[in-house]
Amino acid sequence: MNSDKPFDLIVVGAGMAAVAGANKCARAGWSVAVVDELPYGGTCMLRGCDPKKMLRRGAEIVDSVRLMEGKGIVAPELAIDWSELMAFKRTFTDKAPGRIEGSLTKNGVVALHGTARFVDRNTIEIDGKKFQARYFLIATGAMPRPLDVPGAEYLIASDQFLELEALPARILFVGGGFVSFEFAHIAARAGSEVQIVDQRTRALKRFDPQLVDMLVEKTRSVGIGVQSQAECVAVEKTDQGLVVTCDCPDGERRWTVDLVVHGAGRVPALDRLDLAAAGIDAGADGVRVSKHLQSVSNPAVYAAGDAADLSPGLKVTPVAVFEGKVAASNMLKGNQATPDYRGVPTAVFTVPELVRVGLLEDEAREKGIDVEVKFTDTGGWFSNMRVGETTAAVKFLIDRSSDQIVGAHMLGPEYAELVNIIGLGMRLGLTTKDLKMLVSAYPTVGSDLGSMI
Fold first, then answer.
1. Which among 397, 393, 410, 305 is positioned nearest to 347, based on CA atoms?
2. First-to-last CA distance in the chain?
3. What is the distance between the alpha carbons of residues 274 and 286, in angstroms, rounded to a whole number?
4. Spatial contact of 56 and 186, defined as CB atoms under 8 Å apart
5. How far apart are the C-alpha atoms of 264 and 269, rounded to whole Å?
6. How does DSSP assign 362-392, residue by residue?
């Protein structure tokens, strides 16, 4: 049976961008539907950021105790029970879809389930049923980048890693991005033998190279192998396990492991939507949109989050949320709003974490900014010394003409919290003089900010 009355808006996807856009339009009185073939909540809530952070808590505890050994803490039997940690994660993820769907229906949003594809410019089909709308918001998130490697079918993605009932003894991660480093740090603290292979010269390319080098050294110090310039050419299944073959600078290398995890990047999840049927232009970074997040080829369509090509390099959940709200505002009121990407932080939740907000050094210089670079090794500062961590540093890029921070890069415990203050300062146009006026609770990591800048 087909829907006989068009909706004002159909949102394709049920992650954070989708929920933000759907709720905003529903509260304005629009008839709104949301469709997803997966449980409501999206990657971040169910298969990414949130469950990963819960598993990381186990790694944090192990690391914290080991750093304090010989400093008053004795815990020789300390270990992670992986199945119990996974059960702890599910206390959040199992309840999330119902909570998200319930909040949508409370706002009057019709919750649909199934695989959606466009059949024309104003119609989608969901498992054989057709639905029309004045507007569509595509917020389908991302999926692992396809790998053209013999044996690629033996790799699992981050989704499956976050559902492992038992952690294998030997794990190899393909790729040197967020997924590989974050999960490698968790798995190593849980007792696995871990290897990262990355075809690039430098891992985590969106982050400050100097701090990345420090993080790689720290990563190796906790027993994680990191091999750069290693192009994966084959994965074979043998009686001994999975054999991963890579071309490396010193020749061919092989690793025999129990599990291979895809950490080689993600791409917009658009391939099943049949965008061409609706005249929707898209490229490698997503649906091609204007500055208002409207499709350049079909004005009835907007896109947000990983599905939109407006913000490559800023594919993080907070960005998806405000893009969803901006798209909704533009559908409701006409194209008046544009996303504000100033001061948006991003973090790699290794142990310790690596964070960034604003520009890298080369980006600042390419923009012609007369930038002062302030690098400080904070490994010996009290806030790090008291927890036993010696790997910590910060780098601030300050515009000499305005005294404003244009980039901040930080590696160390709790710096993912401190970077939020810096990001707010950047959005508000505060100077370093303004930020130094902050009176913080002491002693805290936040109280270090004035000395850092």
1. 410
2. 63
3. 13
4. yes
5. 15
6. HHHHHTT--EEEEEEE-TTSHHHHTTT----
- Summarised one tens digit per residue, pLDDT across range 313-364 is 678 899 999 999 999 999 999 999 999 999 999 999 999 999 999 999 999 9
Compute CA distances 315 → 38, 124, 305, 320, whole Å: 20, 26, 7, 7
Q: How far is CA 444 from the centre of its chain?
A: 27
- Asked if residue 268 has a cis previous peptide bond (ω within 30° of 0), the answer is no
Query: How far is 182 from 56, CA to CA, in rounded Å?
Result: 8
CA-based radius of gyration for the chain? 23
Cα(175)–Cα(430) distance, integer angstroms: 37
Cα dist from 70 to 66, 250, 254, 326, 358, whole Å = 9, 40, 38, 53, 39
| pLDDT per residue as tens digits for the range 168-198 | 999 999 999 999 999 999 999 999 999 999 9
Contacts of 107 (CB under 8 A, 6+ apart): 22, 23, 26, 27
The answer to whether 16 touches 307, Cβ cutoff 8 Å, is no
Q: What is the pTM of this model?
A: 0.95
Rounded Cα gap, residues 402 and 364, in angstroms: 14
Q: What is the phi-psi region of residue 107: left when phi exceeds 0, alpha when psi lies from -120 to 50, beta otherwise?
A: alpha
- The closest alpha carbon to 397, from 412, 410, 383, 380, belongs to 410
What are residue 395's phi and psi, to 5 degrees?
-140, 120
Task: State phi, psi for 382 to the nearest 5 degrees.
Answer: -55, -45
Mean pLDDT of the chain: 96
Q: What torsion, rounded to 10 degrees, do the Cα atoms 436, 439, 442, 443 define?
A: -20
